[in-house]
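Sanity check

After download, print the first record. It should look like this:
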Amino acid sequence: MKTEIDKLALELKVVLQQEVRLLENLQELMQDERELLLSFRPHQLLEINKRKEILIGQRNSLEGERHRLTDRLTVLLCLPKDADLATLAEAVEGQAGAELRRLRSILAALVDGIRELATLNAALIEHSIRSIRGSVTFLKKRFFNSDTYGADGAIRHREAELSSVQNRV
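Expected structure tokens:
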């Protein structure tokens, strides 16, 4: 039984290491996304989103493998079925347990960092949307209401003056 636990712990370690690399890549992409949001480069944002979707799909696959391994380990270690990774890592003895605890801490920190970036990026996106809506509303009120154009389709005098001022700037 000890060798089975060690074998599964080693497999879990490999999966967790892969998850760490994947989450590091995701965090880096989200930092890049933040820069793109600040500099408003929508075409590059689309590429970042595609890459994020791929990473999230890969992470979901790894997460499934992690759950499969942790389910088997919880049975062998006589832990409750709903035991989390921290509890499981504490139950595994020796270097394998220490490595699982280390990887779990790294994963937790990465997930926290990604959540924080997601919150910040969402706030930037919301701010951009509000700014665009405000600009559109301003333009509609300023140039597309009934007072802007005459019955003949010509720009009324006041707006025509604004256009000539704009041309001089």
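If your output differs, re-run the checksum step. Summary of this record's structure: The radius of gyration is 27 Å.
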